[in-house]
Specification:
Length: 332
């Protein structure tokens, strides 16, 4: 009797396991190729957005090309991503930021496979990569620069001109293109836009032009090299620049403000990831990619660093703070 009961129990457990496996197995396989490093905060935001949409529907595989820290190693990482794509044979692909497009999608996947591919975080024009086509679409990333300038003007009414610094990279050049195209609509004139690769260049800009700049907008700087030739992360760069420039610095992302920038109207990686993932899910469920046109981000969130306000002696009117997220500088 005990043997019979044990066999029944074992059979029931086996059936329960098989049922659970069948119920919870993901119907799709999705490969996500990130241009940057796994610990990059922008990548982390985008992953949150993608997972929020797709985690319940797909088996997710993430690959990081590490091109902020090692741009020259990007082509080899792209070859690794291609090999991973061939092993996984995914049902869909999401590619993030410009380097993943130029180094991975365009040479290895575009018009060579029928797999639906959706990009996000792309600063360049979609046409730069020959997008969209029969199997590729996605969402462009555009900084809320105009809004960030207007926000700083509310915090600091005397602010009267802005300088820009970005890394000499595809995203930095795309940002400069955006600024050139829309600067006539900004509340204050732009004095200069520098694309750099080292802290020595940053030091020179602060020394020669710092007094002429009412504020600096900094973005896309991760990976510039210090005096020892080592790539730097955003917090190190902001700490360094704040030590040689005494004016306000604004940025384009939440982590810029958390690392010491005064304020920003931020674009979010979560929005980028959610849009691309939602488009891919529709394609996986049968909607033609041609019916999913290229779009762009629109949501902006206002952030203020309280520590930076205090250090600069900025005392905004209470109404300016309404609706903004107040943060303090994060610990290293």
């Amino acid at each position: 009797m005990r043997t019979s009961n044990s066999l029944c129990l074992a059979l029931a457990l086996a059936l329960l396991y098989l049922f659970s496996t069948a119920t919870w197995s993901a119907p799709f396989r999705v490969l996500v190729v990130m241009s940057y490093e796994q610990d990059n905060p922008w990548c982390a935001e985008i992953k949150q957005g993608i997972d929020q949409v797709l985690a319940a529907h797909a088996e997710m595989t993430y690959f990081y090309m590490d091109t902020k820290a090692n741009l020259n190693g990007g082509p080899e990482k792209a070859r690794e991503a291609k090999a991973l794509f061939e092993r996984l044979n995914p049902d869909g692909v999401i590619t993030v930021d410009d380097n993943a497009q130029s180094m991975f999608v365009v040479p290895y996947l575009k018009n060579k496979v029928d797999t639906p591919i959706f990009f996000c975080g792309v600063n360049g024009d979609a046409s730069d990569y020959g997008y969209p086509n029969h199997h590729i679409s996605g969402t462009l990333e555009r900084g809320h620069i105009r809004e960030s300038i207007a926000f700083l003007k509310q915090l600091l009414p005397g602010f009267d001109n802005l300088c820009f610094i970005a890394k000499a990279s595809p995203s930095g050049r795309a940002l400069k293109k955006q600024v050139v195209g829309e600067s006539s609509t900004y509340m204050v004139p732009t004095s200069r836009f520098d694309l750099i690769t080292t802290t020595n260049q940053l030091r020179k800009i602060a020394g020669e032009f710092g007094e002429q700049c009412g504020a600096f907008y900094m973005d896309s700087l991760e990976g510039i090299e210090n005096d020892r030739g080592e790539p730097m992360v955003n917090r190190e760069i902001l700490d360094f620049f704040r030590s040689i420039y005494s004016g306000p610095i604004i940025g384009g992302n939440r982590y810029h403000v958390e690392d010491g920038a005064v304020s920003a109207v931020v674009k979010t990686g979560q929005e980028q990831g959610e849009i691309a993932a939602s488009m891919l899910l529709q394609a996986l469920q049968g909607k033609p990619v041609s019916d999913l046109p290229v779009t762009r981000n629109y949501k902006g969130r206002r952030y203020i660093n309280v520590n930076s306000l205090q250090s600069l002696g900025i005392k905004p009117r209470p109404i300016v703070l309404r609706g903004a997220t107040l943060v303090t500088t994060t610990d290293k």
